[in-house]
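User:
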Amino acid sequence: MISLDLIQRTAERLMEKAAIEIPEDYLDGLKATAAVEDGDLSSFVLQAMLENYEAAKEDRRAMCGDTGCPRWYVKMGNEAHIEGGPIALEAALRRATARATHDIPLRPNRVHPLWRTDHDNNVGIGAPEIEYGFEPGGDWIDLITVHKGGLFGTDYRMLFPSDGIQGIRRFFLDSLVAFGKRGLACQPAIIGIGLGGSKDACMVLGKRAACLRTVGSRNSDPRIAALEGELKELGNSIGMGAMGFVGKSMVVDCNIEVGYCHTGGMQMSVHAFCLSSRRAVARLWGDGRVEYRTDPDWFTDYQRRETVEWTVPQDQNEFA
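Assistant: Predicted structure:
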């Protein structure tokens, strides 16, 4: 049985880690980008951000004044048992969000869309978002927090099968140019692309691709993996760098996730994570153990399955 006290304490720690400690995979990707950037202003921004990350970690302060919109992804092993069940779990995550907003502190960005009501804690109707995934086997839960910007850096287009890969390239470039020229995203960023699904599922896929994949990871489909590499190179060839200045560092990495869609369409969404790529992960067991990491490991073979039923591979008794 995984206790609520352990869940809330771990969730509060994750909120702090996400706000202050940039994930190592993203930091390495950003350093690699900075090493090849030759635009004067882009280079200046990248160096300033790298110094800012070190200062944030040393001072234990949020790495960016706009701490985005905290959200949660929860993955449960099939054998996991939670004290009080899922209702208690959600209450614990809402309490952790409110407390962390006050203690870290985080900027209380969440307001009612019409009345602008602000509870000063990033909690309200539908906030924070909590999304779920499940895995066969395992008596653990993974808690993943992402502090995602909540305004721009996202676009959607209904493409059609005849648009093909060329249409994907075109919309990808249209989105990046708009992000850079109109100041709609903080580059360089991890770019997530959702392909297929219904419109809402396409947006979810793209956001998860941006927020729940690490720099350097590749889709398990080799053709999609090749397209990820091509789009990353393409995005860095348009003459824009950090924060839209002249340069060649728009994209730290490009991740694509797909879902089966209606035969007449090919939905596509594009999402820029953020120059301050904020995520943190922990796995909790019923015996009180907690393991912290930065790789969400969300897109397992099970999450990408195409079959009706699922049979655990012979060489794999439990997903890591």
